[in-house]
């Protein structure tokens, strides 16, 4: 739907629902205000074709329903990034599936008015009914500033309300304004700092902005004049923030504090998430056992328990960890520390063509790449962000640990080097290091080749330290958790069922007859040898033999496509291991001792090293692929990530096996 | 660790515009011009426009980026971008 200048310059009739778009810069308190106004009447929605999502909510005021649209935080409406382009498209009514707003509420941080009001100038150029919400007016006053709201209203010709979103100050006035149709008129005179824009021409605005380079400077000059009449600017000293930053950004203490905070970050994730994870695992197993009792035995029961619950369950057990990570990331972001961490390490990240904000994403990926990939949203430069997404899965995630644990315990001697260093521990550390170094190396390669782009500037706002609004932190974290759960319900479910079918089919009565007297574990192992998965494994064997893998490992690799740690359970099935899952030494011993028909050991130390290296590099994780799909909005990048990481894994394992076999 | 201390730079006395990146921590200045290209356009929306007062707050421990204060906000830029903004020292 396109608007014409005629129908927007007339006062609005009172429609049943009145749609108001909230625009404002990041850290302007826009989301806090949105939450305070709409409460829990909200839904997160995606725009088609882009990765930007927005939140819609509603409230009742003045006898009518007001629909609020919370758009992404942007510094301008200049469509230079996806966020800005989306914001502009929604306002213009060019966003498919999203009704154009009837009016715009600009949310500006009053403490940074000399920058944030430039957005008002830009919005007034559009000529839509507009109002201004000035946030954090309490902070403005505390820092010696003041705003003359009536004077500002007179100069701007639009309603202005001073608010404090998290304390509810000014909310009543704002609700009254939203409910009063007579106050929502188009501005008396359309501000024409830039060339007038015809909104009916889709690309008109882009052209107009590009033609007039000084438009932005003019907007700021307009703001400066405006401020002289109605504002007392706050003291530029930020007492609390300055005092905290004197320590946290100190060349020595700052780095020390940084290390401590990151350590605490991990402690929380592993210490708090571990019992939650165990509880989740218990619940998944319990549900499986319950269904085994309730449902009649047969293939349907089998599919549901081993395929659906076993498969999805192996992925869903990471939920507590993912949720905690997302919560911690949002908390650090909300407090304002994330930008400080990025400020401290930006130089180092710059060596490989990344930026400071990529650090936290990569750090999160040490636990799980899914929240790490979601955390890349704070990186404005699209190619820098994509690079971070593509290398994050190299960081050693917790799903690799069971695999590393099994193989290291079984194949690496528990020798001590120099009487202190344990060789097994050293191997684990080496694997972590290999993953991290590979991520950085890959980033450097991408930024010099495929994703080379030096046109995007590095800029990062260091907002004052604030206590984040708990509700906003929880909601932001919940959005990530919900996305993961939705993927687990669709993509991961589908893959789990396919993998189950490969590992279970074909079903033959003769075989069931032949193995019915064997113990359950032996029968399962015999059945697995006849499965399609085994056929695939045998088919793959010539290709993976140079890596030191036989078809059984091939089956394990295939099964671990769902999640890396599944290979442990699959090898357990193949080797008819029926012991306690928490004590894997039994399975490790079986792997070490297993012999082929001629009595040779099937797996050497070289095989184990090769398999470890394979797991360092290969993207055996459907959740990560789904997250990449979600964040890049295409199947091209997850396909690319999977292929290049598989290629690296193959070559690295081949080299490891060949060199290790020759040396040992 | 001993740090290499460069010779003190002579105080700029002329009104010739200099690069923002050449300021020291604590210096205050006014932006006179910004190189016009697509890269720098993004910074203009943050308030990096001629006539804006700017102050150097601190440098990161490794020397880059640098935190600036302008228009009531704190923004960090790398040397690479700061070199393309010209300023005049405030009295």
Number of helices of chain A: 31
Query: What is the CATH architecture term of chain B?
Result: Roll
What is the C-alpha radius of gyration of chain B, as a whole number of Å? 13 Å
Count of extended strands of chain A = 12
Assign an overall shape of chain B.
Answer: globular
Strand content of chain A is 5-15%
**Coarse structural class of chain A:** alpha/beta
Domains of chain B (count): 1
The CATH C-level class name of chain B: Mainly Beta
- Main beta sheet of chain B: strand number and arrangement? 6 strands, antiparallel
Low-confidence parts of chain B, pLDDT < 50 over ≥5 residues? none
Question: What would the principal axes of the Cα set say about the shape of chain A?
Answer: elongated
Tell me the series of helices and strands of chain B, N- to C-terminal: EEHEEEHE
Describe the structure.
- The complex is a heterodimer of chains A (664) and B (91).
- Chain A is an alpha/beta fold and 664 residues long.
- Chain A has 31 helices and 12 strands.
- A 7-stranded mixed β-sheet of chain A has the order 2-3-4-1-5-6-8, sandwiched between helices. Chain A has a two-stranded antiparallel sheet with strand order 7-9. Chain A has a two-stranded antiparallel ribbon with strand order 10-11.
- In chain A, a hairpin with a 3-residue loop joins strand 10 (416-417) and strand 11 (421-422).
- Chain B is mainly beta and 91 residues long.
- Chain B has a single domain (18-89), classed as Ferrous iron transport protein A (FeoA) (SH3 type barrels, Roll).
- In chain B, a hairpin with a 2-residue loop joins strand 4 and strand 5.
- At the A-B interface, helix 4, helix 10, helix 15 and strand 12 of A face helix 1, strand 4 and strand 5 of B.
């Amino acid at each position: 739907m396109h608007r014409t200048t005629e129908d927007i310059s007339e006062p609005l009739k009172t429609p049943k629902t009145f749609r108001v778009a909230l625009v404002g810069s990041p850290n302007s308190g826009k989301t806090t205000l949105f939450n305070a106004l709409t409460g829990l009447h909200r839904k997160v929605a995606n725009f088609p074709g882009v990765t930007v999502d927005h939140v819609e909510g509603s409230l009742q005021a003045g006898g009518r329903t007001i629909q609020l649209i919370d758009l992404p935080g942007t510094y301008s409406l200049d469509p230079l990034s996806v966020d800005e382009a989306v914001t502009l498209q929604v306002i213009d009514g060019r966003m498919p599936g999203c009704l154009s707003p009837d009016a715009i509420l600009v949310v500006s941080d009053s403490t940074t008015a000399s920058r944030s009001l430039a957005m008002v100038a830009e919005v007034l150029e559009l000529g839509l009914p507009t109002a201004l919400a000035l946030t954090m007016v309490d902070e403005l006053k505390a820092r010696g500033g003041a705003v003359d709201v009536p004077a500002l209203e007179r100069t701007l010709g639009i309603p202005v309300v001073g608010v404090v979103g998290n304390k509810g100050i000014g909310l009543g006035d704002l609700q009254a304004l939203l409910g009063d149709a007579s106050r929502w008129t188009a501005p008396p005179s359309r501000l024409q700092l830039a060339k007038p824009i015809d909104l009916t021409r889709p690309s008109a605005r882009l052209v107009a902005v590009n033609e007039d380079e000084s438009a932005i400077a003019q907007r700021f000059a307009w703001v400066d004049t405006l401020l002289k009449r109605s504002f007392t600017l706050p003291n530029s000293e930020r007492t609390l923030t300055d005092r905290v930053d004197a320590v946290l950004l100190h060349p020595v203490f700052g780095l020390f504090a940084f290390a401590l905070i990151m350590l605490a970050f991990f402690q929380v994730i592993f210490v708090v998430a571990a019992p939650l994870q165990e509880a989740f695992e218990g619940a998944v197993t319990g549900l499986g056992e319950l269904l085994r009792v309730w449902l009649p035995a047969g293939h349907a029961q089998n599919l549901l328990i081993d395929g659906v619950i076993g498969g999805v369950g192996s992925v869903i057990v990471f939920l507590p960890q993912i949720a905690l990570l997302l919560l911690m990331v949002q908390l650090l972001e909300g407090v304002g520390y994330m930008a400080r961490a990025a400020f401290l390490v930006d130089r180092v990240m710059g060596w490989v063509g990344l930026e400071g904000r990529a650090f936290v994403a990569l750090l999160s990926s040490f636990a799980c790449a899914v929240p790490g990939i979601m955390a890349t949203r704070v990186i404005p430069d699209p190619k820098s962000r994509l690079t971070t997404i593509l290398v994050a899965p190299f960081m050693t995630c917790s799903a690799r640990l069971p695999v590393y644990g099994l193989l290291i315990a079984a194949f690496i001697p528990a020798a001590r080097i120099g009487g202190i260093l344990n060789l097994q521990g050293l191997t684990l550390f080496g694997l972590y290091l290999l993953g991290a170094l590979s991520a950085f190396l890959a980033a450097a390669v991408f930024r010099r080749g495929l994703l080379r782009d030096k046109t995007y500037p590095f800029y990062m706002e260091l907002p004052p330290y604030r206590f984040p609004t708990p509700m906003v932190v929880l909601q932001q974290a919940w959005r990530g958790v919900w996305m993961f759960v939705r993927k687990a319900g669709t993509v991961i479910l589908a893959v789990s069922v396919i993998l189950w079918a490969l590992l279970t089919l074909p079903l033959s009565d003769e075989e069931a007859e032949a193995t019915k007297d064997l113990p359950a574990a032996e029968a399962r192992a015999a059945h697995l040898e006849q499965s399609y998965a085994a056929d695939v494994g045998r088919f793959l064997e010539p290709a993976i033999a140079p890596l030191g893998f036989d078809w059984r490992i091939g089956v394990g690799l295939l099964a671990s496509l769902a999640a890396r740690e599944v290979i442990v359970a699959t090898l357990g099935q193949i080797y008819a291991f029926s012991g306690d899952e928490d004590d894997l030494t039994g399975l490790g011993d079986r792997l070490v001792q297993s012999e082929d028909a001629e009595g040779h050991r099937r797996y050497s130390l070289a095989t184990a090293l090769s398999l470890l290296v394979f797991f360092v590099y290969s993207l055996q994780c459907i959740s990560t692929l789904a997250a990449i799909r979600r964040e890049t909005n295409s199947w091209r990048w997850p396909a690319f990530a999977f292929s290049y990481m598989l290629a690296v894994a193959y070559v690295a394992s081949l080299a490891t096996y060949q060199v290790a076999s020759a040396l040992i | 660790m001993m740090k290499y201390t460069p010779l003190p730079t002579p105080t700029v006395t002329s009104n010739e515009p200099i690069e923002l990146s050449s300021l020291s921590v604590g210096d205050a200045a006014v932006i006179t011009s910004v190189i016009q290209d697509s890269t720098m356009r993004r910074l203009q929306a943050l308030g990096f426009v001629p006539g804006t007062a700017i102050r150097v707050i601190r440098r990161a421990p490794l020397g880059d980026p640098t935190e600036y204060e302008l228009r009531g906000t704190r923004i960090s830029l790398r040397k690479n971008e700061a070199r393309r903004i010209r300023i005049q020292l405030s009295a």
